[in-house]
Amino acid sequence: MYDKTHALMARGRAFLGTEHAILCGAMSWVSERNLVAAISNAGGFGVIACGAMTPELLDTEIAATRALTAKPFGVNLITMHPQLFDLIAVCAKHKVGHVVLAGGIPPKGSVEAIKEFGAKVLVFAPTLALAKKLLRSGADALVIEGSEAGGHIGPVATSVLAQEFLPALAEDHVVFVAGGIGRGDMIAAYLEMGASGVQLGTRFACATESIAHPDFKKAFFRANARDAVASVQIDPRLPVIPVRALKNKGTEEFTAKQVEVARMLDEGKVDMAQAQLEIEHFWAGALRRAVIDGDVENGSLMAGQSVGMVTKEEPVAEIMAQLMSECEVALTR
Ligand SMILES: Cc1cc2nc3c(=O)[nH]c(=O)nc-3n(C[C@H](O)[C@H](O)[C@H](O)COP(=O)(O)O)c2cc1C
């Protein structure tokens, strides 16, 4: 049915153990048992967002996801989590097949600790040089994510990253492309450039199975590409990673938060690492307020530029089938 698409996805499908090489990227608070299981049951690859979860919570979440799907799924761990190695141990206990390390360069020993229990490691890399280094030192696959994406972003567009990374790496390595993908036509283009598969977040965030608050979903359905803006860095000293989200009062509150953290830095109340954690805790709290509580005014509505292509609530299986058939049509054209 998806002959051409599946042929181009062959390496990605084998790597993930799935029918389709489409990952739903981990989204904090959104990518929990229900959405993750629905993605995997629909032939894609769901990824649990561990975010700031404790090892105990992750333990429960993995078990609960297993109860809802017999298909493969992964776990996304944030490298700066203070209990990273305990979280890896939880993944080992459950024999999780794939771990995605996000949010920075994997600390020493983390890739080895994951591979030790037989799981595959996926990493993000902002530059080609770093990508090569990570692949040399044991990472099994790469996700390249452009600035169109929702959530924490780098400065370079997906289309440019694809041109830099795919010709250099795709022949010998499994590379997934993320950021700004809303239709199957775009998936076809990246597959033809050599990608093994793709990762989407925004397109799946408001699926029927997503536990996101109805008001969070409504904000997505109303929004256009230009509403999903990157946060602005107020103080050049602050290690602020830009975040793409729908414009609201929360966007302004982030500006105020940065001023507050900069003042704490000036007064010597925090050092640079603590300042960064303050900023990350702000985002985690703000995202929770929007996703779980439905506070779409003050919370953070993290969304990518593809949000304009999210217009109604649909079951994951329908979104997946639509993406796959659009891709097949584009490849057959
Ligand atoms: C609401 C939201 C929360 C996200 N949270 C995380 C996260 O916790 N960890 C992570 O690695 N990526 C996170 N992302 C990025 C997604 O995993 C994915 O890579 C991205 O959404 C892909 O780009 P797209 O939004 O253009 O489809 C998040 C994205 C969104 C929209």
Q: What is the gist of this entry?
A:
By secondary structure, the chain is α/β, with parallel strands linked by helices. 45% of the residues lie in helices and 15% in strands.
Explained architecture:
The protein has 333 residues and is an alpha/beta fold. The chain contains 14 helices and 12 strands. The strands form 2 sheets. An 8-stranded parallel β-barrel has the order 1-2-3-4-5-6-8-9, surrounded by 7 helices. Strands 7, 10, 11 and 12 form a 4-stranded antiparallel sheet that branches. Helix 3 (33-41) packs parallel to helix 4. The two termini are 15 Å apart. The model has no long low-confidence stretch (mean pLDDT 96). Bound molecules: flavin mononucleotide. Residues 25-28, 30, 49, 51, 76, 102, 145, 148-151, 178-181, 199-203, 205, 302-304, 306 line the site of flavin mononucleotide (FMN).
Strand content: 5-15%
- Indicate the low-confidence ranges by residue numbers: none
Percent range of helical residues = 40-55%
Tally of DSSP helical segments: 14
In the residues, how many domains can be counted?
2
How is the biggest beta sheet arranged?
Answer: 8 strands, parallel, barrel
Small ligands present = flavin mononucleotide
Q: Just name the CATH architecture of the largest domain.
A: Alpha-Beta Barrel
Mean pLDDT: 96
Strand order of the largest sheet: 1-2-3-4-5-6-8-9
In CATH, what is the class of the largest domain?
Answer: Alpha Beta
Spell the H/E element sequence.
HHEHEHEHEHEHEEHEHEHHEEHHEH
**CATH fold group of the largest domain:** TIM Barrel
The beta-strand count equals 12
Class by alpha and beta content: alpha/beta
- CATH superfamily membership of the largest domain: Aldolase class I
Radius of gyration: 19 Å
Question: What is the molecular shape?
Answer: globular
Calculate the terminal CA-CA distance, rounded to whole Å: 15 Å
